[in-house]
Design brief:
Structural class of chain B: alpha+beta
CATH superfamily of the largest domain in chain A: Periplasmic metal-binding protein Tp34-type
Number of helices of chain B: 15
Distance between the termini of chain B: 39 Å
Helix content of chain A: under 10%
Strand content of chain B: 15-25%
Order of helices and strands of chain B: HHEHEHEEHEEEHHEHHHHHEEEHHEH
Shape of chain A: globular
Strand content of chain A: 35-45%
CATH class of the largest domain in chain A: Mainly Beta
Largest sheet of chain A: 9 strands, mixed
Number of domains of chain A: 3
CATH architecture of the largest domain in chain A: Sandwich
Oligomer: heterodimer
Helix content of chain B: 25-40%
């Protein structure tokens, strides 16, 4: 289909009475509520309430051996891609039908996994389109995978979600797991009148203020969160903040699942400031400064643990009271962001504290 | 296909290649006002390397070779499961010489190669061709699950002239009696083979943008008018291509030949062009350093004969510090002790099946050289210890899906017609005699 045809089809898809109900309720006369939602002025450099929070629906869940898959939908969304420190705005295209979202987790421990995920979409005519979904943060979903997807029209679609083996380090009992491709196929029905009947919550005066909405809770799908400070393993050394993310630094000593042999293991557990959403795809380095000794800088390795979720850590020779630890964020979380997260976790200065 | 005068000539020609057939060929003849000289019948004047194209390809101002613009790949299966005999070889060689006699061996004329898969050689000997490894194709990334191509043979037709690839294809199939004024032999490839599939495509300045305008699935206006490939950048830098010597088999009965990998990669150009910006595309295709230093103009011609990949820095360091690593930067790791790349790219794009596609065709001394290069491109090690994902921000892997893979032996010209797995002096003489 050529662009001008797509424009026509896109208009037809959302036109008429299908959309009218939902939007008129909101006082909108056009489709602009979600096609091009207002962007809050004077956004803070941190997590903030967007102008709108769009509802979402669950298409279904499925499992393939040890992995659980969930497939969600919402209105096509504006989002922001991040490559290094370069952020680009991805606008809704006329042909986009919905925002397709997915989540993947280990079923035994309900640990959400940061592994790249593809979606193969087959329509009733057998035409197939494959897209690799972006890892993403949104106010009501937290960490997930998503993209705006154009469908040829209303009907049934078979959607296969697939992940490859996970390369990230992991602790027991994960070390032998996630080594093979896994996939789950779900049949979904796309009907604009249903899809676009989702709620749109306007946040009014709250829009633009620091904070965010609650994560949606679903019985079948684990939340993409990391534990509160009180539930972290070992000893909490420091609760720091950088670029509006919280960086909790902990130390596990002796024999543990975190390292070979016995000794101290330093970890950083970053999370969003309000809902403790995991922040994968960062790179961090730790420098330890001791009186009379040389500074040592080591890269922290991204690791997945059933209790801690995604964290960054390194085994140390020793760490003693009085040592100064600084944690440098080499790269901020390389995840796409919905409105409300696109100004957070970009400039992330180092944190520093003294062990005591 | 309509052939009325309202269709612009150039657009018509590339559609004609995609559609093929005698009607398209006839229509082409009237449209393409070009005279291609007939080929030599001094058969000893042809190079022994089928893949010796570089000497006859034109070069740009920077010395980079310009690949032939129109391509056809014919995937062939022998009608018979038995071992070919001398008369089969004679038939095939005769058909090939027919089209060579019709069009001179040049970029304007015809360049062609014939290659064979492992399943072809298995009819002779379970060990495959003598003196080299020709492994069956396999998935080459932990996240891919391609269909594996096992046709007996693949013919690659290439020319800057659309009617030449079309005409050669029709003549090989025995559909035209006279080609470019040269009478064609009775022999046709269809006497021996079924044509299992046909892949067609294009490469070169202007063709991607023209195809995007015609395609249903490409972002219109996104592809620069002068881009040589659908992703907008040139891939044919002199410094990133090895010499033909480097990819040629040095010893054994197939010395003078090479190995060929052909994969079919689907491209997500919607994400590439409408969700990433130019900076991101440069960082992902070349490396973040090139994007930050603003080294790339247009399709990358400003880089001259080199992709300047040595300025990119190490992949592991870049991945951790920049959060993104470039495709060229990764691929450049696969080099030999003389700092030569291992694979000679002769790839091209297609939109013939409605989906933007890269037919990745490469030549290398050993299939293992391709595997090594592909492993470097996978950047799997980077995904383990950096913010770079298995595909996200990992070169251009986000935008590519491997549909099919196949491995082939491209024998020297003297063995191009149905070679035995272990050619001896006797069989080679028989082939020569039959010619």
């Amino acid at each position: 289909m050529r662009r001008r045809d797509l424009l026509a089809a896109g208009g037809a898809l959302v036109g008429g009475s299908l959309m009218a109900g939902c939007l008129e309720r909101l006082g909108f006369q056009t489709q602009s509520a979600w096609r091009d939602p207002p962007l809050v002025e004077d956004r803070p450099d941190g997590v903030y309430y967007p102008a709108l929070v769009e509802g979402m629906g669950l298409y279904g869940t499925s499992t393939d051996r040890d992995l659980g898959f969930a497939l969600f939908y919402s209105f096509p969304h504006r989002f922001w891609n991040l490559t290094g420190s370069r952020r680009t705005k991805v606008v809704v295209r006329p042909e986009d039908s919905l925002h397709l979202m997915a989540s993947v987790w280990d079923t035994a421990t309900e640990t959400v996994l940061p592994v790249d995920l593809s979606a193969e979409i087959t329509d009733e005519a057998g035409e197939t389109k494959t897209t690799n979904l972006w890892p993403m943060l949104s106010p009501n979903m937290g960490f997930h995978y998503g993209d705006n997807v154009a469908l040829p029209g209303a009907g049934d679609y078979e959607i296969t979600l697939e992940v490859g083996p996970l390369q990230t380090d992991r602790t027991e009992p994960f070390s032998g797991q996630f080594r093979d491709r896994r996939s789950a196929t779900m049949t979904v029905h796309f009907d604009p009148s249903e899809t676009y009947a989702l709620d749109i919550e306007r946040l009014g005066e709250q829009a633009g203020k620091r904070g965010t909405v609650e994560l949606m809770e679903l019985e079948q799908v684990p939340a993409p969160t990391v534990p509160p400070a009180s539930e972290l393993p070992g000893r909490l050394l420091h609760e720091g903040g950088s670029g509006d993310a919280k960086l909790l630094v902990g130390l596990v000593d002796g024999e543990s699942r975190f390292r070979e042999g016995s000794g101290p293991y330093l970890y950083v557990s970053p999370r969003t400031p309000y809902n403790r959403v995991m922040l994968p795809r960062m790179s961090l380095a730790a420098t330890i400064e001791r009186d009379g000794g040389p500074n040592t800088t080591t890269d922290l390795r991204a690791t997945i643990d059933p209790e801690l979720g995604v964290f960054y850590g390194v085994p140390l020779e020793a760490i003693v009271n009085g040592d100064t630890v600084s944690i440098e964020v080499q790269t901020p979380p390389q995840v796409s962001r919905h409105d409300g997260y696109e100004t957070a976790f970009l400039e992330m200065p180092p944190i520093e504290f003294t062990v005591g | 296909m309509g052939s009325g005068p309202e269709i612009p000539r150039r657009e018509f020609l590339k559609s004609a290649v995609a559609i093929g057939g005698t009607a398209a060929f006839s229509a082409c003849l009237g449209r393409e006002e070009i005279s291609v000289p007939a080929g030599s019948t001094e058969w000893s004047s042809y190079p022994d390397r089928q893949h010796a194209w570089t000497d006859v390809l034109p070069r740009d101002d920077y010395g980079n070779t310009i690949p032939p613009r129109h391509r056809v790949l014919l995937f062939l299966n022998l009608d018979s499961a038995s071992v070919p005999d001398p008369s089969d070889r004679e038939t095939f060689e005769s058909a090939l010489r027919g089209v060579e006699a019709a069009y001179e061996r040049s970029a304007t004329g015809l360049l062609l190669t014939v290659s064979y898969s492992r399943s072809y050689f298995d009819r002779f000997d379970a060990d495959g061709p003598t003196g080299l490894e020709l492994p069956p194709p396999e998935p080459l990334a932990p996240f891919e699950d391609p269909q594996l191509d096992t046709p007996d043979a693949v013919i690659h037709l290439a020319s800057n002239t659309a009617q030449v690839v079309l005409g050669a294809e029709e003549a090989l199939k025995g559909e035209v009696g006279t080609l470019n004024g040269i009478e064609q032999p009775e022999a046709a490839i269809t006497d021996l083979f079924d044509i299992e599939r046909r892949r067609v495509g294009f490469v070169g300045e202007g063709l991607p943008a023209e195809n995007a305008r015609e395609s249903d699935t490409l972002p219109e206006d996104a592809i620069a008018e002068d881009a040589p490939m659908l992703m907008g950048f040139s891939s044919d830098f002199e410094s990133t291509q090895p010499t033909e010597d480097r990819v040629t088999i040095q010893s054994g009965p197939f010395a003078g030949g090479t190995t060929q990998h052909i994969s079919k990669l689907l491209l997500d150009l919607d994400q590439w062009y409408t969700q990433d910006d130019r900076w991101q595309r440069e960082a992902k295709m070349f490396c973040p350093h090139h994007a930050e230093a603003d080294l790339i103009e247009g399709a990358g011609d400003s880089l001259g004969a080199t992709s300047k990949v040595e300025e990119c820095g190490g992949t592991a360091e870049t991945a951790r510090e920049k959060g993104v690593v470039g495709h060229s930067q990764k691929a450049a790791q696969a080099r030999d002790e003389n700092d030569s790349p291992l694979i000679l790219r002769r790839d091209f794009n297609s939109t013939a099946e409605g989906v933007p596609t890269l037919h990745f065709l490469s030549l290398q001394r050993r299939i293992e050289d391709f595997v090594e290069t592909r492993e470097a491109m996978n950047g799997t090690d980077l995904a383990a210890d950096s913010p770079v994902g298995q595909r996200t921000n990992n070169g251009i892997l986000q935008y590519i899906r491997t549909e099919r893979r196949g491995n082939y032996l491209l024998p020297p010209r003297s063995l191009r017609a149905l070679p035995p797995a272990n050619p001896t002096a006797a069989t080679m003489e028989a082939t020569d005699a039959s010619a």
